[in-house]
Automatic annotation (TrEMBL):
This protein's record includes keyword Coiled coil: no
Pfam families (UniProt xref): ABC_tran
Presence of keyword Transmembrane helix: no
Every ABC transporter domain range: 10-241
Name used for this protein in its record: Zinc transport system ATP-binding protein
Top-level taxon of origin: Bacteria
Length: 261
């Protein structure tokens, strides 16, 4: 019997955060285990991106304790590959996929160095893992939304991270690209922890291992199912899901209220 204790990748204890007095997270607790594949869901403005930034040490909470791989995130954030939300803003930048991935090897103090053989090997491996090596010389604007996102994930992988945090990676990716992207993430999850902010509830039951509902409070469900209660809690309105499996297959008409605006 395999009874090895699971190791902690990240944790929050009693964390509260406000932007200029506007409270976004209130006394939240979280324990993310290594090799988890967790989806962060919740309404717009619920605090999902803020949560990721706190875990990465990009924002400091007003109170509470944050640990990333057992230490303060300022010391360990380099162990996490981060794919932020608005990365598509730069899609017309005239740069090849390979150049983008090589940037994942840059570090503070190493900004203007020549890439080493190890840097090139790591970039090749990362592009290969995302099945983008054949496209390495293409400019970013020549790639589809899904391919571009795979390049950005390869960039995050180039530093051989122990975890990957992604903020809405499938925004501006077509349906086929989304499935493809999540399949890649599932493969990566055999080696690394994955935390992904998503509004795409359909992917949850097929790919993820746990679901984190964030809406000022935080509830971590250690199961891949999305339950009606979870949706009500996350979205403050009755939602049903169109998808495969044991979930209801019905699209509801708009029922009024701020969530339908
Ligand atoms: N830099 C900032 N300064 C002030 N307020 C901010 C800042 N960033 C976010 N907020 C506000 O904090 C709240 C939470 O934002 P956050 O981006 O964490 O939510 P989210 O759940 O990721 O939303 P979305 O699904 O729309 O991306 C929102 O009300 C947002 O307007």
């Amino acid at each position: 019997m395999n009874s090895q204790p699971t190791k902690e990748a990240a944790s929050l204890r009693g964390v509260s955060f406000s932007y200029n007095g506007h409270r976004v997270l209130e006394g939240v607790d979280l324990r993310l285990e290594e090799r988890d594949f967790a989806a962060v869901i919740g309404p717009n403005g619920g605090g999902k991106t803020t949560l990721l930034k706190i875990l990465l040490g990009l924002l400091r909470p007003r109170s509470g304790k944050v640990l990333l791989f057992g230490e303060s995130p300022e010391r360990t954030a380099h162990l996490v590959g981060y794919v932020p939300q608005d990365i598509h803003a730069n899609k017309h930048f005239p740069i090849s996929a390979l150049d983008v991935v090589l940037m994942g090897r840059l570090r503070p103090g190493r900004l203007f160095h020549r890439y080493s053989r190890d840097d090139h090997r790591a970039a090749e491996e990362a592009l290969d893992r995302m099945e983008m090596w054949p496209e390495r010389h293409k400019r970013m604007e020549e790639l589809s939304g899904g391919q571009r996102q795979r390049v950005f994930i390869a960039r995050a992988l180039a530093s051989n991270p122990r975890a990957l945090f992604l903020d809405e990676p499938t925004a501006s990716v077509d349906a086929m690209g989304q499935t493809d992207l999540y399949s890649h993430l599932k493969d990566l999850n055999e080696q690394i922890t994955i935390l992904v902010v998503t509004h795409d509830l359909m992917v949850l039951s097929s790919y993820v291992k746990s679901v984190i509902c964030v809406n000022r409070s935080l509830i971590h469900h250690h199961a891949p199912e999305v339950t009606p209660d979870m949706l009500r809690l996350g979205y403050r309105c009755p939602v049903e899901l169109l998808g495969h499996g044991h979930l209801p297959h019905r699209v509801l008409p708009c029922h009024g209220g701020p969530c339908c605006e």
